[in-house]
Amino acid sequence: MKKLFIGIDVSKDVFDFCLLDQEHKVISSKNVEENTSTGINNFCDLLQNYEEYSIWICMEHTGRYGSLLCSEFSKRNLTYSLLNPLEIKYSIGLTRGKNDAIDAYRIASYAVTNAHKLKPFNLPVESLQKLKVIISVRDAFVKISVQLKNQLKSLEVLHKSLSVKEEIKMIKAAIKRHEKDILKAEMQMIEIVESNQELLENYTKISTVIGVGKITAIKCIVETENFSKFKDGRKFSCHCGLAPFENRSGSSIRGKTKTSKLRNKELKAVLFKAASSAIQHDKQLKGYYNRKVNEGKHKLSVLNAVANKIVLRIFAVVNRNEPFIKLCA
């Protein structure tokens, strides 16, 4: 059966799409539909005109803008992939000009060229989707709370020379309000985890790893889609930005071995906090940390290595289907 690749460029209000066959021949281009249920229905109706083709839809991972498309495609059992925008950008080389129609063509062209690499996207279960939303809301509250606390400190210093009593009172009330919202979000996350047996099993197992708290555990579950997206701890470490890479070429370039900038910054920060906690409560990791620092290693570099060990422990307890056992008393 002939293959048809469809590239979709998604924006808030509309989505552009381009159709290419396996020979890079343009079947249809410069098509636009509204990013609504009606617009998606029109698009799906159009696909019925190409029943002689095996259809594969590709679009960039755009977060919320593409959520409705993913939901509707999954309901209709359509084959589609979500692509990393950077991967497409670096694959096409030097370019001039940019608009939505061109971007849709480039996505379709990438899909044709890299058809052997494409993997169908499976929409996570509703509980995981809900957890992801609540985590993002909680993180937003945490950032605001930190900003307010910093503002409070500066106002307390200023209060020594200028009366800002009312302003301090307002900031304290806002901090208290946001802390309640953070606690409420965390309680909602725990309720979702406890209502799903598969999520609860993995949450319970990885929570036994020293240094892993409830937020770290839930974020790892969400990011790995309950350990279905990543089966290997080393690949997940690379995704988080914990895996070091060489920077060397010939005899002239001798750069430092360091982690990649292409990483999940929020998750790496959470795992660093887990590592900081672990070296305080795990004698094995504490001994490793002190030994490496005494050898002259930078503290952050060693902390990165400890975080990597925690990731490997998390995947070990999940894959072996058994809780973490502390080796040192």
Briefly summarize what is shown.
The chain has helices at 37-47, 67-75, 85-91, 100-113, 126-158, 165-195, 197-206, 214-223, 233-240, 265-281, 283-294, 299-319; strands at residues 2-10, 14-21, 26-34, 53-60, 80-83, 244-249, 253-259. It is α/β, with parallel strands linked by helices and 329 residues long. The chain has three domains: 2-117, Nucleotidyltransferase, domain 5 (2-Layer Sandwich); 126-195; 222-319, no CATH class.
Account of the protein in words:
It is globular, with a radius of gyration of 24 Å. The longest helix has 33 residues, at 126-158. It has helices at 37-47, 67-75, 85-91, 100-113, 126-158, 165-195, 197-206, 214-223, 233-240, 265-281, 283-294, 299-319, and strands at residues 2-10, 14-21, 26-34, 53-60, 80-83, 244-249, 253-259. A hairpin with a 4-residue loop joins strand 2 and strand 3. The model has no long low-confidence stretch (mean pLDDT 90). The chain is an alpha/beta fold and 329 residues long.
Total individual domains: 3
Overall 3D form:
globular
Give the helix level as a range of percent. 55-70%
Give me the count of strands: 7
Low-confidence region ranges: none
Using brief descriptors, characterize the structure shown.
five-stranded mixed β-sheet, Nucleotidyltransferase, domain 5, 3 domains, single chain, 12 helices, alpha/beta, 329 residues
What layout of secondary structure does this protein have?
Blueprint: E1 2-10, E2 14-21, E3 26-34, H1 37-47, E4 53-60, H2 67-75, E5 80-83, H3 85-91, H4 100-113, H5 126-158, H6 165-195, H7 197-206, H8 214-223, H9 233-240, E6 244-249, E7 253-259, H10 265-281, H11 283-294, H12 299-319
Parallel strand pairs: 1-4, 4-5
Antiparallel strand pairs: 1-2, 2-3, 6-7
Helix pairs in contact: 5-6, 5-8, 7-8, 8-10, 9-12, 10-11, 10-12, 11-12
